[in-house]
Amino acid sequence: FVARYSPDGDLRWVRSATSNGPANSTTSCVSYSLKLDRQGDLVTAGGYSCAVASDQDPALSTLSYGGIPFRTTLYPGQAHVFAQKLDTLGNTIWLHSVGDITYAPNDASEGFGTLVAVDVDAQNNVWLGGDCDANTNFNSRPVNLETEPFQPLVYELSPQGQPLSAFVLPSTTAGSVEDMALAPNGDLFLGGYYNGTFNGSAAAQGADGFVVRTSPDGSILWTKLLQGPQNDYISGITTAPNAGVAIGCYYFYQASFGGEQLATGPGNNSAVFRADGAGNIVDVVQPDVLTGYSLIADVQTDIFENIFVCGDVGGQVIFTNDTLTCL
């Protein structure tokens, strides 16, 4: 669903996908991220599945958003990417879905995956991040991309929702772009996780986190890895007024980021980093986990360079002026 509230908390409208076909437990549509574009319209992204074709066109399913049908998917229950743009009244301007009705590596429709991150550049183009699921091709003409299963995916659409470009990040086994932010010059800051190796790194023990700066064509300019003996995740990334970034993460027991050792805790611990545009770590702040855990889910900055975080804590976790402000 997508909803709009007034500044006072009054519901203005709510919209969701609808199906006019037979009941099917594998039909689904989940939005994971949203962003206002340069004109004030709302862009959302996520994953959907509907293998029930309409009577009018087998390429179009019985699932729709704002009267616009999603493309039919091949396998019931398997996630496929989608994005949409709505105006301020909740009307769907466009819906972009790729679908997949034939399993052929070179056909025009291979849209396996889930999108969980979205941002908009200075030209109002839409940038999306996520994963490409268990497929070896991501095709959405004119985009034709060879992939490995579950590689981190970046996908670009025009302001009108037409495919422009796509690339995957060099991870093995599996991974995902969990958050993204656009630099003033059009470069992308991308954060997420991977299994296996990333850009030639040592193999992860479980899942490890990554932060990269890339050019719009996917060329990697620098890489920072969050590595430890258990699962480690980059959960949030946002640009800062000093042309750098603020980065949120969480990890189990112990980890290092870009070679800098983080505090050891009894369970999940978290940290926020401030880095400059070249990837140099300027500052690290962490809560003090006495018992239990801390988890940072997202991070934002304001024009005064304050950092805001949200997440979850359990047990005894100390937030002080020397670490983080608990919201």
Question: How would you sum up this structure in a few lines?
Answer:
The chain has 327 residues and is an all-beta fold. The protein has no helices and 28 strands. Strand 25 and strand 26 form a beta hairpin.
Q: Structural class from helices and strands?
A: mainly beta
Shape: globular
Determine the N-to-C terminus distance: 26 Å
Strand order of the largest sheet: 17-18-19-20-23-24
**Number of helices, counting only DSSP H or I runs of 4 residues or more:** 0
Uncertain spans, ≥5 residues at pLDDT below 50? none
Instruction: Write down the overall mean pLDDT.
Output: 89
Largest sheet properties: 6 strands, antiparallel
Radius of gyration: 20 Å
- Helix share bin: under 10%
Number of strands: 28
Content of β-strand: over 45%
Oligomer: single chain
Can you describe what's shown?
This protein has 327 residues and is mainly beta. Helices cover 0% and strands 54% of the residues. It is built from no helices and 28 strands. It has strands spanning 2-5, 11-15, 18-19, 28-36, 42-49, 60-65, 68-71, 80-86, 92-97, 109-110, 114-120, 126-131, 137-140, 143-146, 152-157, 163-168, 174-182, 188-195, 208-214, 220-227, 232-239, 245-252, 256-257, 260-261, 268-275, 281-285, 288-301, 307-318. The protein has a 6-stranded antiparallel beta sheet, with no helix packed on it. A 4-stranded antiparallel beta sheet has the order 4-5-8-9, with no helix packed on it. It has a 4-stranded antiparallel beta sheet with strand order 11-12-15-16, with no helix packed on it. It is globular and about 60 Å long. The chain starts with a strand and ends in a 9-residue tail after the last strand. The model has no long low-confidence stretch (mean pLDDT 89).
